[in-house]
Amino acid sequence: MPKTSGVSTAISQISSTLPSPAFGTELRRWRTLRRVSQLELANRAGTTQRHLSFMEQGRSHPGRPIVLRLAESLRLTLRERNALLFSAGYAPAYEETSYDAPAMAPVREALERVIEGHLPYPALVLRRPGRVIAANRAFSVFLDGCSPELLAPPINLLRIMLHPDGVAPRVANLAQWGRHVIDNLRLLAMQSPDRNLNALVDELAGYVPDAPVDQAYLGFAVPMRLSVREGELRLMTALTAFATAVDVTVAESVLESFLPADAETAEILAERDRQAAERGEPRLLAGL
Known about the structure:
Elements: H1 6-15, H2 21-33, H3 38-45, H4 49-57, H5 64-73, H6 78-87, H7 105-117, E1 123-127, E2 131-135, H8 157-162, H9 174-191, H10 195-205, E3 224-228, E4 231-241, H11 248-251, E5 253-260, H12 263-278
Antiparallel strand pairs: 1-2, 1-5, 3-4, 4-5
């Protein structure tokens, strides 16, 4: 947890004696979004409904500990918790360390070892909602035929997958698979409203055709059916996140891996990676 400066401490001490209408508005907005009553939230955060009501009305200024308890009770992300603290006049509680910073080396190296170990199947590290941070060489299966504009850093995985100049023309079940992606992204946007995220959802939704209403997949997952020179790959997606992160960058980092949904897909990917190894290609893609 970062140390607050003398100025930040002084501001916090002064603001603690004043009402905080900005905090009250934000608290009420999040409580309404999460569909939690004042009584339920008060019980979760270890306070009283009366105190919570006074905070929402700006009649009572919250202390830093209660702001943090309320943020946790509302299941806010670390970035959102920092914003709620700021609305109450307090310094952020969680650092946001650059992914390339020396302090992030252990995390960075661990993630890279994981995606290397996932070979011969594609795997990558993402910064939500879709920015590619690192990827193994098997990820190149998605890059064939993509427009150079889409591959200019920072690369966004979701845009690559759904854009008509990206992977989309090679996805046989784009309507079904793409809508599944869009629905999950919309759910994220509902849980953590953000103007940029909403704009991305609207953009991507415009690339995906409508799926038939009666269309359904009866298996255990919706696979992506990707055309490659060797045939068709059927790929499932798995996501892994840090459950106990206390840094914004780490909390917003996700490991996404693509798994074969049938034996043919596994064989094709294994052979492609064997050939890549023979050509001396590095296990991680460069320039992302």
